[in-house]
Write a structure and sequence with these properties.
alpha/beta, Arc Repressor Mutant, subunit A, Double Stranded RNA Binding Domain, 4 domains, four-stranded mixed beta sheet, 10 strands, binds zinc ion
Length: 382
């Protein structure tokens, strides 16, 4: 017999197995192609090669978010081993030695575990035990893949389960237990700020209120704005009228909602004016218009404060927390920003992370950046 089958050879023992190992995939890219991948931070090339930087002594994945080196300072290696043997060390940001697919699998496993155990207390230690990693490492890994810590992810899952059940008309207490909240006090503590309203009023969903809405097309996307008699209560970006109407009626399903462009014309004008790129001497600020802030006292404090940040300026989440008298409630401030329902008029886009990076934005980071750029050009006069 010339060739034994794969199984036969495997069964002969580990020596034979050695020679069956697949030939190491050779990197098909030349230097020029690899450099292009680095310039483009091409994720699809991760694992195919690493690049080392002479000036820093570090080697990275092609997709590393760190500042790119000068072409002359980059050396390419097919394997991390090669880079290490040449005396380079692994980058702490992109961690090129980590097996990407393994990391993905671990995070997916933890997410699944969280989703299936919402009614339990999910400590980081417990989750780390499930995947046999250190709590510290799991936290970092999870956050780098999901942008949330495992605990925040669990909170999100519980909240969306709760919202779904409340929308379905389940009693508040019943919905709470279904959503994995152990006791009512915990629900109020944890979710009130994120829900925007305490559960009781969330369930009212605008009962007894008349809400008018109108659309505005803009170069930042389609906008719906809606107002109660007290003021603007909803301003959001979306892809289609259907999607925006659905979001509006979901939030205020018990209100009487009608399209009335005329009733909103003054606000539409203010918004158009704000979004235009031209500068005029007497810019009316959209923050001056009345808003109907429907949320917890804490959220309202955050939202009111946001309206005092001048266009063209930014504050960090910590600065906002400090300004409203809760210096430790940085995360709750971020949550309040994330649950803002009135874009632009409650300018949550003017809050950024302490390191100056954008943080999050409910309607996409690109929009946040664009709004800030525009404001800078228009309002920040030097
Ligand atoms: Zn790196």
């Amino acid at each position: 017999m010339l060739r034994a089958s794969f199984e036969e050879r495997i069964s002969k023992g580990s020596d034979q197995y050695e020679e069956l190992k697949p030939v190491k995939k050779t990197n098909p890219l030349n230097d020029e192609a690899m450099w292009k991948a680095v310039v483009n931070r091409d994720e699809s090339c991760d694992g195919q090669f690493v690049y080392a930087v002479k000036t820093t002594g570090v080697y990275c994945r092609p997709s590393c978010p760190a500042k790119r080196p000068n072409r002359d300072n980059a050396i390419f290696y097919d394997t991390t081993n090669g880079a290490r043997q040449a005396g380079f060390r692994a980058c702490a940001r992109c961690r090129p030695d980590e097996d990407l697919s393994k990391a993905e699998a671990v995070v997916a496993q933890v997410r699944r575990y969280i989703e299936e155990h919402l009614d339990e207390k999910l400590t980081l230690e417990k989750l780390a035990g499930v995947v046999e990693l250190s709590p510290y490492y799991l936290q970092r890994l999870f956050k780098s893949r999901c942008e949330l810590t495992p605990r925040q992810y669990a909170d999100e899952c519980r909240l969306s389960a709760l919202k779904k059940r409340l929308s379905a008309g389940t009693q508040v207490t019943e919905a709470m237990y279904d959503a994995g909240y152990g006791s009512s006090s915990r629900l109020y503590e944890r979710s009130a700020q994120q829900l925007g309203m305490t559960p009781g009023s969330y369930k009212k969903k605008g009962a007894g209120e008349q809400i008018n809405f109108a659309f505005l097309g803009s170069d930042l996307g389609l906008i719906v704005l809606a107002a109660t008699e007290k003021g603007l209560c909803f301003l959001q970006f979306g892809d289609s009228e259907e999607e925006l109407i659905e979001a509006l009626t979901r939030e205020f399903s018990n209100a009487t909602i009608s399209k009335d462009t005329k009733a909103l014309s003054a606000w539409l004008d203010a918004l158009r004016h704000y979004l235009s790129k031209s500068t005029t001497s007497n810019d009316e600020t959209i923050e001056a218009i009345d808003v109907d802030l429907n949320g917890t006292l804490f959220q309202q404090a955050v939202w009111r404060y946001l309206r005092q940040i001048a266009p063209g300026q930014t504050k960090t989440y910590s600065e906002v927390a400090e300004a409203i008298g809760y210096p430790k409630a940085v995360r709750a401030v971020a949550n309040a920003c994330a649950s803002n329902r009135i874009a632009i008029a409650v300018p949550c886009h003017r809050v950024v992370r302490n390191d100056g990076s954008l943080g999050g934005y409910r309607w996409g980071l690109q929009r946040k950046q664009e709004l800030l750029n525009r404001e800078k050009q228009k309002y920040q006069r030097t």
